[in-house]
Amino acid sequence: MSASTIFATIAALSVAVERVVEILKQMFGSWPVFRLLFTPCKTQSRENVRCACLYLLSGTVGGVIAGVSDIEIPLNTRHPHFSYVIVGLLSSGGSAFWNHALDLMQAAKVQKEVDARDAVQASLVTAASANAGAQ
Predict the structure, then answer these.
(1) Is the CB of residue 57 less than 8 Å from the CB of residue 21?
(2) Quick check: 62 and 89 in contact, CB under 8 A?
(3) Phi, psi (deg, nearest 5) at residue 128
């Protein structure tokens, strides 16, 4: 599995995780326990704890989706399900983060294509000038 395939898969999973968390927010947002989780806090320390809990929820949802969908990244570990945990944690980073990573990968690909095109053109110019000098 290539790096771009892994990034694209995790980006798509990240969007799915965001949707599932929004669905959970709509379904259970009125319950007192979940209201604390989904309502912004006034103090910074409580807001930090709330955000950490949301990331854990997102990571858990991502791990479950990865496990059910059998989405793995190649890891050399003894535990076969560790890949699902990693994919879940990566997917909790948010789609904006992964979209930025995909944009960077796309820019690198375009730059490689431009470099290859320039190298071919330079070799053609060199060959043409060598042929002109030989005649």
Answers:
(1) yes
(2) yes
(3) -65, -40
pLDDT at residue 3 above 80? no
Structure tokens at 4: 């771009």
Question: Residue 119: its pLDDT value, please?
Answer: 87
Q: Left if phi > 0, otherwise alpha if psi is -120 to 50, otherwise beta: which for 70?
A: left
